[in-house]
Amino acid sequence: MRFSPGGGRVRTRLGVWLVPLAVLLVSAVAAPASAAGPAERPAPRAAAPPDTGAAAPHGRSAVWSASLQGAHGTSPDLTVRNIARASVAASSLRVRVGNPYGDRPAAFRSATVGLQLRVGEADLVPGSLRTLTFDGRRQVTVPPGGHVYSDPVPLRVAAQQNLAVSLYAPGAPVNDHAFPPPTPNPPASFLSLGGDHTHDTGDAAYPEEDRGLSAEPGYHPGRLWWVEVVDGRTAAAGTIVALGDSNTAGHAAVGGGDRWTDLLAQRINALPPGRQLAVANAGISGNTVSRQPSPYDPTGQCCGPPAPDRLERDVLDLAGVRHMILLEGTNDIGGGEFAPPSPASQVIDAMKEIVERAHARGVRVVGATLMPMCNTVGSDKEANRLAVNEFVRTGGLFDGVIDFDAAVRDPAAPTRIRDAYRSDCYHPNAAGHAAMARAVDLSLFGLDGAEGRSGRNAA
Fold it and tell me: Low complexity: which segments have biased composition (predicted)?
């Protein structure tokens, strides 16, 4: 694992991208808005409807989340317009911003939320911009290791509609989330030209050229700064949180595809509103399920803390959480330059701790089997993966099981993901994410409707 001499992105063996610190210390500079967005764009939506707070019998639930993974440099004097997608319809929205890895306070001078008008552009739906306040104030300072929720704002978002959370915090430590290679779908962000553009409803200050993981003005697929959670009043009966690594965060779901969690949310959207559940994604590329050094980064700024150490922040403390899906262990078993491969017992012990703590908070846990990793047949790594999967399926720990291994493995070579579903040895492609979403039995979450029956074991 090395940084490239030219200062660009560097990929580790498991698809984790690391960014040189110098790249993230770039000052904001003017950049032309020359890159076009997608060839086809949806028609502009009408002005945002008034938020009456109606149709929310189940109270407040997290309708979207993204787990921050590390601190990388200092924010230039620019605005970050973060793009998120609501998994279910909601109103009276709150936004959580965080500084979990900063070594100093993060001062947010201005923050807004609105509805994205078109995919790939920073424009907002007319009439949808709302100023975020924090305990009645427009500015807030988040201490190192902390986070803060905004006050609720009167804004309604539809299921599968994109939100834009704009934050201006020059000089703040950049706590971010990223999962390259890029996809055209959220999460994503636009970095503006210099200054505070949180209240801009158009996109003149937000160039659309794809800038990847740099800190240059432009479009940044798969990357977010500071924003962690959006929750709201909703008719849904709570939230499912998916706790995982890159295969949950969405690494390699390319070619116009959504992540399996987004596709699961779309399946659930087919049910009547009162029988739906929101879906929140707590995946971090390179994350481990057990407490150990990161296999890929000795600084601890690559891949987030081990799952047990981020369980409260990323799962249990979210509003309305009722169910958790646990898909972790690949990075433990695979190992890396900075940590050796772990035995199955280490992964299983970590799973037991997570389930025990979740159950103590009234959260049901559905375990997921680990997908093929191109391990050599008969190797210790493959034996450990198979042992973990056998425990997930038959150990009696979990409240239900999703067999992702069976859904995507090649029947002729079961240590590999089948060609049609494989991006690389560790990651499914867009078709693989679709197969994963189809493999989820909705009855595991009490959603045993017609859609759930038809979607069962469809992979």
Answer: 35-57
